């Protein structure tokens, strides 16, 4: 399988996604950005899971920091969606936003264990496997 | 011959009373939970990025998450545990904090 991301000798990361791949990435990044800003979004709950489950309410400063960092990663990923090369920081923003998107997709579809994942419809499994392939590619060079 | 006046060092001794108080508080654990979709390799690189652990420790922690459903990846003060938990959540992992011994 062709590598989707390649580390160049100058340290930059070459993105070898085709148009279809970038469309999937744009959708994933866009959902994370929207969910972080829209409390009614399906993924909002997943993006705001408890930090300390023993407390009724988490520390507001920690919640704010999480929202700011997640939103900022998604913004950076969207801004660099069509770039041929990424910096290290941009590649990390891609990885983290894709990973947030992957887990939120699984949670929103009730895929909390392997059995449920295997029973999911083919289209959803394909989408999940595509995001996983992107993440494998990024993890390989980071 | 001029007389030399010898100076004597004068040392002042100060007694400092110190009070030592030992506060023992159970440490806070940062826990990462398993999920069925996150690639193992991604978990390893995220641990390395956030904690700076060596590769073999990151891999060992990832395997503990995978086989046991959860792993304590860091222990210490409440504030730092919360900070690490936020970083892990921002990176897309399912993480929480809990006080050790709970």
Please give the structural blueprint.
The complex is a heterodimer of chains A (142) and B (102).
Chain A: E1 5-7, E2 13-15, H1 19-37, H2 44-47, H3 60-79, E3 85-86, H4 88-108, H5 114-119, H6 122-141
Antiparallel strand pairs in A: 1-2, 2-3
Helix pairs in contact in A: 1-3, 1-4, 3-4, 4-6
Chain B: E1 28-33, H1 40-51, H2 55-68, E2 70-76, H3 78-90, E3 94-99
Antiparallel strand pairs in B: 1-2, 1-3
Helix pairs in contact in B: 1-2
- Compute the CA-based radius of gyration of chain B: 26 Å
Instruction: Using the alpha-carbon principal axes, give the shape of chain A.
Output: globular
Terminal Cα span of chain A: 19 Å
CATH topology of the domain at 32-99 in chain B: Ribosomal Protein L30, Chain: A
Shape of chain B: globular
Strand runs of chain B, count: 3
Largest interface, C-beta within 8 A: A-B, 39 and 27 residues
Question: Order of strands across the biggest sheet of chain A?
Answer: 1-2-3
In spatial order, strands of the major sheet of chain B run 2-1-3
Describe the structure.
The complex is a heterodimer of chains A (142) and B (102). Chain A is mainly alpha-helical. Chain A has one domain (5-50, 70-141). Chain A contains 6 helices and 3 strands. Chain A has helices at 19-37, 44-47, 60-79, 88-108, 114-119, 122-141; strands at residues 5-7, 13-15, 85-86. A 3-stranded antiparallel β-sheet of chain A has the order 1-2-3. In chain A, a hairpin with a 5-residue loop joins strand 1 (5-7) and strand 2 (13-15). The model of chain A has no long low-confidence stretch (mean pLDDT 95). Chain B is of the alpha+beta class and 102 residues long. Chain B has a domain at 32-99: Ribosomal Protein L30, Chain: A. Helices cover 38% and strands 19% of the residues of chain B. Chain B is built from 3 helices and 3 strands; from the N terminus they run E-H-H-E-H-E. Chain B has helices at residues 40-51, 55-68, 78-90; strands at residues 28-33, 70-76, 94-99. The N and C termini of chain B lie far apart (83 Å). The interface between A and B is medium-sized, with 39 and 27 residues.
